[in-house]
Amino acid sequence: MKAEPTFLSATAAVDAAAVAPLPNSRKVFVEGSRPDIRVPMREIRQSDTPAAFGAEPNPPVYVYDTSGPYTDPAARIDIRSGLECPRAPWIAERGDTEVLSGPSSAYGVERLHDAKLAELRFNLQRKPRRAREGRNVSQMHYARQGIITPEMEFIALRENQHRAEYLASLVEAGPTGKRMAALLGRQHPGMNFGASIPNEITPEFVRSEVARGRAVIPANINHPEVEPMIIGRNFLVKVNANIGNSAVTSSIGEEVEKMTWATRWGADTVMDLSTGKHIHETREWIIRNSPVPIGTVPIYQALEKVNGKAEDLTWEIYRDTLIEQAEQGVDYFTIHAGVLLRYVPMTANRMTGIVSRGGSIMAKWCLAHHKESFLYTHFEDICEIMKAYDVSFSLGDGLRPGSIYDANDEAQLAELRTLGELTKIAWKHDVQVMIEGPGHVPLHLIKENMDLQLEQCHEAPFYTLGPLTTDIAPGYDHITSGIGAATIGWYGTAMLCYVTPKEHLGLPDKADVKDGIITYKLAAHAADLAKGHPGAQIRDNALSKARFEFRWEDQFNLGLDPDKAREFHDETLPKESAKVAHFCSMCGPHFCSMKITQEVREYAAREGIADNAALQQGMEVKAVEFVKRGAELYHKQ
Amino acid sequence: MKAEPTFLSATAAVDAAAVAPLPNSRKVFVEGSRPDIRVPMREIRQSDTPAAFGAEPNPPVYVYDTSGPYTDPAARIDIRSGLECPRAPWIAERGDTEVLSGPSSAYGVERLHDAKLAELRFNLQRKPRRAREGRNVSQMHYARQGIITPEMEFIALRENQHRAEYLASLVEAGPTGKRMAALLGRQHPGMNFGASIPNEITPEFVRSEVARGRAVIPANINHPEVEPMIIGRNFLVKVNANIGNSAVTSSIGEEVEKMTWATRWGADTVMDLSTGKHIHETREWIIRNSPVPIGTVPIYQALEKVNGKAEDLTWEIYRDTLIEQAEQGVDYFTIHAGVLLRYVPMTANRMTGIVSRGGSIMAKWCLAHHKESFLYTHFEDICEIMKAYDVSFSLGDGLRPGSIYDANDEAQLAELRTLGELTKIAWKHDVQVMIEGPGHVPLHLIKENMDLQLEQCHEAPFYTLGPLTTDIAPGYDHITSGIGAATIGWYGTAMLCYVTPKEHLGLPDKADVKDGIITYKLAAHAADLAKGHPGAQIRDNALSKARFEFRWEDQFNLGLDPDKAREFHDETLPKESAKVAHFCSMCGPHFCSMKITQEVREYAAREGIADNAALQQGMEVKAVEFVKRGAELYHKQ
Q1: pLDDT band with cut points at 50, 70 and 90 for residue B300
Q2: Where in the numbering of this chain does the ThiC-associated domain appear (chains A, B) (predicted)?
Q3: Which of A612, B447, B458, B512 is the most exposed place for a label (fewest CB within 10 A)?
């Protein structure tokens, strides 16, 4: 075995590019009902409107911040020590857990005592926790008892993004602020296909959604570093980023870097899909340094333990792996328990068979043993483990289609029905569940996936990969799938699993990770806008205003990727002066539609046509009156 | 004035990267009813299935080819001479046109005799054509008289892509071919929102669609170099690429290169939006070398002629510009004739006012003169020009929304109604019309745009820019808009105007042009699949089969961008041997879901479960029986 002594020294401090605050941004905290509930948000400052456009101050904009302490200059980052643990007191004070003397999985013990791993091992002083005998520590269990946990309150504050206070403070600031609140706060009514999104997310609403299974809070008691977040159709659409090494390439250091990089750009959760060497150690480093929930597919590691021979897998090995990972703090497990023996032959006539790794492992096992999968037969045993650590199920779609050809076929839909049955069983144990979905689906068949999932899985949150809407663009599958992701997010999917440009071709590097995340963040946001998620349009409105007023820096900074926007702008017009110029490279100085519009507006104002009162009140009724009056004026000509 | 003497020598031969055939591809021609109807298609050869998967030959795949003679090794490319003119005999033999002694626009004459322009001028020996007195040379006029032109027959063959013959020849080749035809030819029934897409496109169908205005064939009689194509809801969804210099940057040579580059990657039409110096000369070079229709916005050039002062524009200057460009061979004109005086004040309370350049020019003119726009008052005069050269209208959406905030507002929808009225007037003259659309629209409001357009513009083809589904991702607006484009294409838009990653930030370079086109090609294809366009799924199926069988080279070559796919693959596994390896970098040699699937399939076959007869006949009914039988087998266990 090759130890990697350079790893620790080289990356003890995280990549500087991944920890600097984003431009013109600072991390602010909204405090909850107790001082240790401190919800981070990113405040993006704006410059004033240029004199030519009215010289008014523009308020900062608050956006959801997944980057954790990394973008907080006040935080000390040392990945050898891991992050601070905001959840630690909440977990401890509930008094329903006990601290173990050490790992209780056989494999965990073995790795801990393997001297050869010393240099690779994260030096975790803390011992794992587990529920006391007979206790259930899942957020769903608390929710069903009517308990609002600090995690739930944290989430309510986080989802609201400070919006009510923000708009109220603008209105109180006087006429300009009032006008600004009307402009920024205006939003198209959405179309949400039966979702129940309240105007304001309360802690009680979070609790009720978790209690009825419509949302999950992935928050293992052994991951106290996490900043709580929620996945559900009535909340902001979330994005997951996959990382992980393979036998072919990549090291622990790279994976930790990918995780911090992914959360910097907006990943709400990260899945560690490592399949190569040192899976256990890689995972420990990632979790200890991750402010977002971590998901895994435990069967990958179990398979490594039997040297890649699927038929040698046993329930005992799998069970030990679940405990091993639960005690490290994995927040959700993808478990392909719906791959039933009788579904396997349904895939034989497919174009691309079984493309899910977990699905194909279990299919092979089922056929080799002529038995139902141990994930299915031991499902209630798995529930017992999940509730002892609060690991959420992500019920895997082992039979998802791997091509447009195979979309929505019998194998896929049969498995979905089984996932619905398993959801009911998990809920009987108060264990949190989300359901994974396709894959490759043409645009017009996406809705059927969402509708069947809602119906058959009883509104458990849907967590989809893409779907890719065509197979003909390898190298651009972040886009073929981003189209499907925005669409299924609009229809009701709660979390979108990103796809990078390298999908089907190779392992993503940092640039691919970023491309995948930004694509999925914009897809998730397009879905939020379409659903009419309250306040979602504020950022669009602010950015559009900045664009119209030629506030280039604000336009860059309000975007999902300020660095790239600035770089693109500077390629054409690199001079600093151009960033305040009232024209841009597309049209040149004599030919700017926005400049002309401004003249139109001034002209209209001069002629008494533009009624600023209508504008200030931001009311559509007024706008309609204004338009009528304007039209009459002109008709008189 | 700075002449550009290096231009001609440096680019007399076009960039080598833009003229090489794509990998494993060759240009083939399908001949029509006469030998001079030769329809180009791209044939992509495939390798045999590896022995492990059955060692069968894989047939070539035929795809729509927009690249013109540039990818034909048999063609001699010399951009100083321009392309061959396949349409020349068709135009001449109709006997309804006359060859003029020279340009009939004042500006055309002026430029021709300006000695300073000698070095920049394309040396066109050919004189312009115009309809004989009293004649109408539009494809719509012919169509309405029941005439099927060679252009229409060319288009019918082109749209079918050889599919019926292709599948028939496979079936005739024996059992393997039959099975292959069933596999490749299988397709999900689509959902097309009332489109009328026949299984086979006949020349008569093309004629009837053009006659009723549901499709346009942009084909100026002065652009005989064009390979005819059609834009309509019942045909393949098309993609337009914008190029053009501005006062700030870019030269003639670059624009010609962008045009050949754009068509190489699939642009069905190209708009030359130049606004800088030498607009006239740039356009001549582009048209003479373009195998695809060229569109322009004549008001841009008219504005240059009055030194950028919108209020100085006159009908006479605009008219002269239309004739100048029509005699150069522009195939469609964007004309913002729907910007009425009374609509202008409707934009005063917008977030981003009027963002269309043409729209803002006309709005300014209307306000300055307190008169209705000359584009509107002289609309029938414009029709007279259009029908004398067969230039198609692209009725511009001068009041399209420039932000999510402004989407679907009164200004936008009022203009759309006027465009519908103008459509009727143009049709009265047998002049072809398409309608331009937004812009920035959240996902859930896109359908309203399409529905209103179909209703109010009487099914004239819709030609949309995006729409962008959110404003928060500058630098990624090819994707924010690709989502909207796929969606509106599915709903019925006939042509999608691309957006590049530089949108809102700078002028696109060649890399951006390619990113924009590939994004829009995949969006258009996703729309074709969703509409159930006959045969659209063949390429997806072939690529998926190649992917499943680890035919890496075939997977690359069947994709929209073989170069990028290969580059991405080689970044992770650069060795040539890896391209035939039965695993890939994502999972490594011991851990491949496709390998496991293959084992599942072999296992099922060994156990007598997989019924190859079902597979060979490719019939779903059989597959269902098979699945049932498989399930029963297992239930017996």
Answers
A1: very high
A2: 21-98
A3: A612
The count of CB pairs under 8 A between chains A and B is 482
Cis peptide leading into residue B467 (ω within 30°): yes
Angle at which helices A279-288 and A315-328 pack, to 10 degrees?
30
Residue type, A76: R
Mark yes or no for CB contact B604/A410 under 8 Å. Answer: no
Which chain B residues have a beta carbon less than 8 Å from that of A539?
Answer: 471-472
pLDDT of amino acid B124: 84
**Phi (first) and psi of residue A456, to 5 degrees:** -85, -20
Q: Return the minimum-mean-pLDDT range out of A556-560, B175-179, B201-205, B465-469.
A: B175-179
Q: Where are the alpha helices (DSSP H) in A390-536?
A: 410-428, 446-456, 477-491, 510-531
How far apart are alpha carbons A318 and A334 in whole angstroms? 13
Q: Look-up: residue for tokens 């001082």?
A: A35
Please give the Cα distance from A86 to A155 (Å, whole number).
Answer: 13
Give the contacts of A161 (CB within 8 A, at least 6 positions apart). A41, A62, A63, A64, A535
Provide the strand spans (E) within B47-117.
61-64, 97-99
Average pLDDT over residues A46-72: 93
B138 contact partners, CB below 8 Å, separation of at least 6: B386, B387, B390, B392, B430, B431, B432
Residues 504-523 (A) with a CB less than 8 A from some CB of B:
504-507, 509, 518-519, 521-523
| A242 is an annotated ligand-binding site residue | yes
Enumerate the residues of chain B whose CB falls inside 8 A of the CB of residue A507. 572, 585-586
To the nearest whole angstrom, how far is the Cα of B35 from the nearest Cα of chain A?
33
Mean per-residue pLDDT, A593-601? 69
Provide the sign of the torsion angle of the four alpha carbons B498, B502, B508, B511, taken in this order: negative
Amino acid identity for residue A148 in this structure:
I
Distance in Å, alpha carbon of A243 to nearest chain B alpha carbon: 11
- What's the length of chain A? 637
Q: What is the pTM of this model?
A: 0.93
Q: Which chain A residues are within 8 Å of B354, Cβ to Cβ?
A: 593, 596-597, 600
Q: Which two tokens stand for residue B282?
A: 């740039």
A87 annotated to a ligand binding site: no
Residues 137-176 of B with CB under 8 A from A: none
The DSSP 8-state label assigned to residue A560 in this structure reads S
Instruction: Look at residue B583 and tell me whether its pLDDT is greater than 80.
Output: no
Distances, alpha carbon A424 to alpha carbons A12, A25, A143, A378, B161, in Å: 44, 44, 17, 15, 50
Q: C-alpha angle with apex A104: A101 to A107, nearest 5 degrees?
A: 125
The answer to whether residue A99 scores a pLDDT higher than 80 is yes
Residues of A in contact with B370 (CB under 8 A): 637
CB contact under 8 A, B593 and A547: no
pLDDT in tens, B55-98: 899 999 999 999 999 999 999 888 889 999 999 999 999 999 99
A358 is in an annotated binding site: yes
- Interface with chain A: mutation pick from B186, B365, B444, B548, highest number of A CBs within 10 Å: B444
Tens-digit pLDDT profile for residues A283-331:
999 999 999 999 999 999 999 999 989 999 999 999 999 999 999 999 9
- How many whole angstroms separate alpha carbon A74 and alpha carbon A64? 19
According to DSSP, residue A351 is labeled: S
**Each residue's pLDDT tens digit, A352-380:** 999 999 999 999 999 889 999 999 999 99
**Residues of chain B contacting A531 with CB distance shorter than 8 Å:** 444
B405 touches chain A (CB under 8 A): yes
CB–CB contact B476 A564 (8 Å): yes
Tokens encoding B623: 């597959």
